[in-house]
Design a protein that fits this description.
This protein is mainly beta and 213 residues long. Helix content is 2%, strand content 46%. The chain has a 4-stranded antiparallel β-sheet with strand order 4-5-6-7, with no helix packed on it. Strands 8-9-10-11 form a 4-stranded antiparallel β-sheet, with no helix packed on it. The protein is globular, with a radius of gyration of 16 Å.
Length: 213
Amino acid sequence: TAAIRSGGTLFTWGFNNNGQLGRTPDKSSPVQIGSSSWTAVATGGSHTAAIRSDGLLFTWGLGTFGRLGDGTTINRFSPVQIGSSSWTAVSAGTGHTAAIRSGGTLFTWGTGGSGQLGDGTTINKSSPVQIGSSSWTAVSAGNGHTAAIRSGGTLFTWGNNYSGQLGDGTAIFKVSPVQIGSSSWTAVSAGSFHTAAIRSGGTLFTWDYRDWE
């Protein structure tokens, strides 16, 4: 688990077999990570990503498939800075990561076997790859799929679709973003095999295999 206190200090606790706590060893109570101030944090399968108050992005933990985005597949037991850009949002999936830069551009990296990176391939990427040229406001990386909202409110999904988690009425994997309907959305979360999102106006929707069968 990872959490940010009022004031911006970051704490992690729990299992630490791959360095996902940002320090060693396992911890059963919160332990502060450094002395920096942070604005966002996301935990994945065995890695963690966080944005510092100055906008810089850091990742740590399991490095297989390139999920840390540092150009390697090496485990990191302390935060490693990813480039020098400023970021506004980040989400850590099971084996991949997605983040939005200041200005709204979307980047993904890590395992791509199910098309979850959205770059039109099924190839793993160990460094951030830009997805199109659109501006985005929210993104969520799940187990093998990703969901994101563009600045105009339109919802897109891509990746693993075995259980219908993309919400496009099929069970076909998608390697590039596919627009879901024409509604305007404000929030989205991608789980292991399902997705949930909130439309403008506050109504909540969920979907997986049972919804499109």
